[in-house]
Fold this protein.
Amino acid sequence: MCLGWNFIILLTGKEKIILATEQNSALNEKDFGMTSHFEESLQRGIDLIRSKVIEMGSLAERAMQGALQALVERNRQVAYSVILRDQYIDELEKELDRLCLEFLVRQQPVGAHLRFVFATIKINNELERIGDYAESVARHFLRINALEPQPAYDKFVEIANMSIPMLRNAVKAFIDQNAELARATTALEDKVDGIRNAIHEDLVRLREEGNLPLGMLGPLMIIASRFERVADQACNICEEVLFMCSGEYIKHKGGEVLRVLFVDDGNSCVSQMAEGIANALNQSKFVFSSAGVSPRPIDPRTARFMTDKGIDISRQTSKYLNQVPNLDHYQVVIALSKNAEVAFPQPPTKTVSIDWRIEEPSKITGTAEEVRAAYEQAFKFLETHIRDLVGAILGDGKN
């Protein structure tokens, strides 16, 4: 070794430069080989995960298409197929979770690669939920298939033809890392919400006219909401895509908004009054909604009374708890009847449950003056408590 080292020292300057260059070249080739191997392994993992997302997105889309086909064509066989195939989506979700965890442990990704696998884990959950929505549509269809008369399903086709392509584009935006496609997809959410609301109004009208069996009202409203939820999940996927592409976490942007849900038996009187009163406060930091255990159309006397109070609730609709958009994001649930306690989430949970039980004035059968007095009492109770609740929350936020 010493002889070799001495020999190198005795080389001329030009020869030393050549030798050093050759040595550096050999080292660079070795380093490049290690880096290349790591990058190849990293890319293989990414490609495998991406392929599974494509497969799962395809299964979820196929399930929703099948659910729509079963409903429109009244095809029980297709409905059973959707229900049975949901297990494949569940199994694929587990496999994709495993691949992501293995990728994190083996590759220890950073930067864009870490955002990729993080987004994949979240998207995996969104796609599995869409599979559950398809199964739910199929099961509710089986409940109502034998009932007559059946309504026209044109608007169900319309909402499906918006929400399912949104799902497809959301997955494509993820695969192609296309932030613009993700933004364009989320822009369609309000249109889907509008169609869902129109379907609910049509169903309530058909029921009031006697052209829809009572047993069909609830299931059909749930089915419409399931298609609307597909659009919501697609938007969630798009939010993950934007995070993956830019590093900006925009999911549930405006998290300072507090969501309050009023729940009673029928969502036809008191809870609708509460929602109207609360929204009339014009508090941008709050989102107020209402629902019922067994919803019925809004009581006409309630609507007229609220109009007299200067509050228009004509655009509000009766709905089941599971029809409330983003129900799991509500921080406060207020029960206005004993049966409404079923709305309270089971512990452990961060949701605050409040009991404001109150007699529904629409059930009063006395004189017009007595009915009016009952409405006035309910209105005053709700207005006072809602203002106190909002004031307490806003005051708490200033501290």
Q: What stands out?
A: DSSP finds eleven helices and four strands in the chain.
